[in-house]
Amino acid sequence: MLTRKIVLSRWRCKCSVKNTSTTPDIQPPNPKKISSDMVGPPDPVSNLRRIIFKQPANESELETKYRKLRTEIQEWNQNFWTQHNSRFFKERENYLKNNLPEGKSNLTADEMSVFYKAFLDKNWKGHINYNIEWYKKNLTLLGLAIRVKLRRILKIKD
Question: Where exactly are the structural domains of the chain?
Answer without folding.
Answer: 6-154
